[in-house]
Amino acid sequence: MAEKDAVYQIIADRIDSALAAGVAPWRKAWKTDGLSASNLFSKHAYSGVNVWLLAAWSMTRPEGAPAPFYATFNQVRAKGGHVKKGEKGIPVVFWRFLKREDKDTGKEVKIPLLRYYTVFNVEAQTEGLEKFLPVKVAQGTVSAEAKHEAAEAICARYEGGEAGPKVLERQSERAYYQHNTDTVVIPLRSQYDDLAEFYAVRFHEDVHSTGHDTRLNRGLKNGFGSEAYGREELAAEMGAAFLLGACGLDGSQTIENAAAYIAGWRSKIKSDPRCLVVAAGAAQKAVNLILGVVPEEKGEED
Q: Domain coordinates of the chain in residue numbers?
């Protein structure tokens, strides 16, 4: 395997292990007790595929999910703590840009190179850092109505703007995004047993619509079964999970046939290990557009 592909394979193997255990990380809201996965000391929240790498580790733990705070080995040691014996770190990735001179133009160009480093969950995998962990605060119960209102507000902000897609909620057997008319068609909410499922489907199609030529221009004309099509579908899955998490809804119960669903994604990831990084990056950009978020710059060990 070429060195440049090694990081993609590490990511694919990690996610495949979770899928083999019956866990699809992107089907779970990414927040734990209202908190997003972040570096305990730099305070930067993880994004893109790192969210799912950390979720895959957390969700497959028999002891349950710990507080979502992480640190590198050097950070742990610098703060006077240590990693517990036998604990294995979790890979998180970052892009390093190499400067090269273009042979044709003589101008400097930047070549992206995917790299990874290792982090440890501070609560579960280290000792001596307890004083740095935030005091756990009992989370109040948010009503289902409030969550649905938050989801509706997300839809209204994106779909209701001049640059947003047309959305038709009508009696239909399926939901879909139609690129040539820039239209999202979604079955009536009364056709769903649970409104969380309704918003999961709606967010999925909204993420697809961000790929329109006038928005993020992801090239949505790839045929069913192609690698690009598979990446786009995974981006929509991941993006929908982010948005569900943003309004406190849980999408983990919306899989109609879990076994077939998971087997399908395992097959796609094995044939195209890069799809996880590409799809997660596309999902993050789509969510930022829908929510109106301007991402902050992050360092290599955040």
A: 3-291
Token couple for 74:
């050097």
Listed residue (147, 275, 152) closest to 203, CA to CA: 152
Contact 33, 67 (CB under 8 A): yes
Token pair in block for residue 19: 């899928």
Structure tokens at 7: 């990081």
DSSP string, the chain: --HHHHHHHHHHHHHHHHHHTT--GGGS-S-BTTB--EETTT-PBP-THHHHHHHHHHHT-TT----SEEEEHHHHHHTT-EEPTT---EEEEEEEEEEEE-TTT--EEEEEEEEEEEEEEHHHHEES-GGGSPPP-PPPPPPHHHHHHHHHHHHHHHHTSTTSPEEEEES-S--EEETTTTEEEEE-GGG-S-HHHHHHHHHHHHHHHTTSTTTT-----PPTTSHHHHHHHHHHHHHHHHHHHHTT---TT--SSHHHHHHHHHHHHHH-TTHHHHHHHHHHHHHHHHHT--PPP--TT-
- From CA 239, how far away is CA 17, in angstroms rounded? 21
Task: Give the integer Cα–Cα distance in Å for 258 and 288.
Answer: 28
* Distance between first and last Cα of the chain: 28
73-123 residue pLDDT tens: 999 999 999 999 999 999 999 988 888 888 888 888 888 889 999 999 999
Model-wide pTM > 0.70: yes
Alpha-carbon distance of 242 to 236, in angstroms, equals 10
Cα-Cα-Cα-Cα torsion 103, 104, 105, 108, nearest 10 degrees, comes to -30
Alpha-carbon 139 to chain mean position: 23
Q: What is the residue type of 179?
A: H
209 vs 107, 155, 268, CA distance in Å? 36, 12, 22
